[in-house]
Amino acid sequence: MADIVHTPAKDRQEVTRAETTHGGPRFSPRVDIFETDKELTLFADLPGVAPADVDLHYEKGELVLRGKVAPPRGDTPMLLEEYEVGDFYRVFSIHESIDPVRIAAECKNGVLTVHLPKVEAVQPRQIAIKTS
Fold first, then answer.
1. Is residue 114 part of a domain?
2. Does the residue 99 lie in any domain?
3. Smallest Cα–Cα separation from 105: which of 55, 35, 61, 69?
4. What are phi and psi of 29, to 5 degrees?
5. Domain assignment of residue 103, given as a range
């Protein structure tokens, strides 16, 4: 009978990414995130991706961005090919200070912009000071 070996916690590695069963290349689009008092704004570079090929959804505290980069159309032979084709995938943990009902997105010129409004309770507010 084999002995059971317990790995000490310090030697364990935290898994930060889910395993995938999908074959082929998978990309992580470059993303910038900015914060204001009222919202977080996420900008994702998706050059050549049609909005119809993007799946953006919020579920159980996560914002999931996935889609497909289609091959360029045309019968012209390539002289240089650096533009990669395949699927892309990113997942962001969303803090409870974000109002998931009001999340909105638009795609223009290859940039996906996602607005993540903060709930009213966490937004700073100015308090008026009364004079006597």
1. yes
2. yes
3. 55
4. -65, 150
5. 26-70+86-121
Q: Is 68 exposed, middle or buried (0-12, 13-18, 19+ CB in 10 A)?
A: middle
Q: What is the pLDDT of residue 65?
A: 94
The answer to whether residue 93 sits within a structural domain is yes
In DSSP terms, 88 is beta-bridged to: 27, 67
How far is 70 from 84, CA to CA, in rounded Å?
A: 9
Q: How many domains does the chain have?
A: 1
70 touches 84 (CB < 8 A) = no
Match 């019968």 to its residue by tokens.
Answer: 75
Asked if residue 50 belongs to a domain, the reply is yes
Residue-level pLDDT, tens digit, the chain, 132 residues: 445 545 555 544 444 555 555 566 677 889 999 999 899 999 999 888 888 889 999 998 999 999 888 777 777 787 887 776 788 899 999 988 899 999 999 999 889 999 999 988 777 777 777 887
C-alpha 1 chain-centroid distance: 47
Whole-prediction pTM: 0.71
